[in-house]
Specification:
By secondary structure, the protein is mainly beta. Helix content is about 0%, strand content about 55%. The chain contains no helices and 16 strands. Strand 4 and strand 5 form a beta hairpin. It is elongated and about 55 Å long. The relative contact order is 0.29.
Amino acid sequence: MPNFTKAAARVAGAAAAATVALGLFSTGAANADTFIPLPGGEITETLPDGTAVTIRLINESVNISPSMGSTPLHRNVWASGRAEVQVHGAHNGAKLSPGYVVGCQVDISGGNATGGANGAVNSQGNGSGGVTSGGNLTLGPGQASTFWLLQVEGANAYGEESYVPAIKFKGQEGSVTWADSTLGLAGCAGYAQARAFVAVEVTTEFGRSEMRLWGQPFSLG
């Protein structure tokens, strides 16, 4: 079995939200949380040089609170899952960045909302990371935003401290697991939807390739 190098990780956005166990129900039947198991997914892409890359989203679920602020404008989600990537061949480094796209009264089934940062923390061999809490988004009608699960600490090209939404590994496998990661949504009076994604970047001697696996969209109410 390979030895995994654990990368330091902290959650994007405010870290004030506490970890909450899945399956928790709020007081009163009308305010009960909704637990949704999700199917995840798996894809295998072949790079121009013939290297195959497999991306998996497994053990995915969400626990949805319709109104944390006692108004229709507030929703809260506790999300869990695991992202895995396998590079079937030699490469010069890979990055793994899991996250969620959240939309207010907009169709996100095509996964058109993107964002983020470049770079990662260097590590030897395989890589893994963990996430336990989350942050908040404010969206109006017709808006969508990307919420990155990771902020990994490291130095930028100038030696200054920076945070990026990815782990970087040089071995054949990398993974990130998140449990009860809090994603709050405010300001959306209409239909809200979200979906997980796993973004992967692999560099070989022939160039750099980017891939993304999308999870199944789910309603926030």
